[in-house]
Amino acid sequence: MALSSLTQSLRPSLLSTTTSEWICHTCRRHQSSTRRTRKALRVKPDATFLPSKTETQDHIIFNPPSSAPSVYHTPQKFLPQNDPRRRLHSLSLNSSFVSHSRLGGSLPSQQPSASSLATVRPAYEKKYHLTQDQIAEIKRLRAEDPRTWTRVKLAEKFECSQFFVSLCCCAPEIKEERDKALEAVKARWGKKKREAREDRQTRKEGWGRDT
User: Fold this and answer.
1) Does 187 reside within a domain?
2) What is the C-alpha to C-alpha distance for residues 167 and 155, in angstroms, rounded to an integer?
3) 9-58 pLDDT, tens per residue?
4) Using CA of residue 10, residue 14, residue 17, residue 21, what is the dihedral sign?
5) In sequence order, what DSSP letters do the residues of 130-184 get, joined into one string?
6) Is the Cβ–Cβ distance between 48 and 62 less than 8 Å?
């Protein structure tokens, strides 16, 4: 079956007179190729997105998409003081105010102040009630059994924050165990993930050098 289909694909037409037509029509190369496709997709960016040759410093580029012109497309912040479109903006605000008043609606109120907003967590006052003996007790409990007396339990017992407990004492053996567990996880990483984490660390180191 495969031999007959190959013979049909190699068989020339009845009108063929040259041997050049004895080719495999199923294996014929098309006009498209990787190089030609990449060349067709290589489009140069618009001139407005390229660095300016006349401006010596960075500036805001307002480049809206091509559409029907409208005075509302350009924000009022970018309009000069003597631009007539500023008056159109004010007229539109007045017309919206009149329409709201006629319909009996209410305009949105001003932005509330920060003091009137509800807090994310309940307000509390910081306490400075721990004595030197209590701090020594925190260190002793943490050193004797760091698994039982965690930072959470110590903070609940002495009514302080976990951050304060971390300032008072530490557990090196717990830190070593967590570091070993982290190294075991990193050992299972592939090449791409390891390179991505290294690139992330490099970017973090460059944050302080950005100007």
Assistant:
1) yes
2) 12
3) 455 555 555 555 555 555 555 667 788 888 888 888 777 777 777 777 77
4) negative
5) --HHHHHHHHHHHHH-TTTS-HHHHHHHHT--HHHHHHH---HHHHHHHHHHHHH
6) no
Both tokens assigned to 198:
């290294």
In a domain, 75, yes or no: no
Asked whether residue 166 falls in the same domain as residue 187, the answer is: no
**Distance (Å, rounded) from C-alpha 62 to C-alpha 81?**
18
Residues present in the chain in total = 211
CA 34 to chain centre: 32
- Work out the percent of the chain whose per-residue pLDDT is above 90: 27
86 versus 151: the higher-pLDDT residue is 151
Give a yes or no: residue 152 inside a domain. yes
Range of the domain at 179: 171-205
Are the beta carbons of 61 and 48 closer than 8 angstroms? yes
Render pLDDT for 52-111 as a digit per residue (tens, 0 to 9). 777 777 767 777 677 766 666 677 778 888 888 788 777 776 665 545 545 444 444 455
Asked whether residue 190 is assigned to any structural domain, the reply reads yes
pTM for the whole thing? Answer: 0.39
Q: How many independent structural domains does the chain possess?
A: 2
Q: What is the pLDDT of residue 107?
A: 45
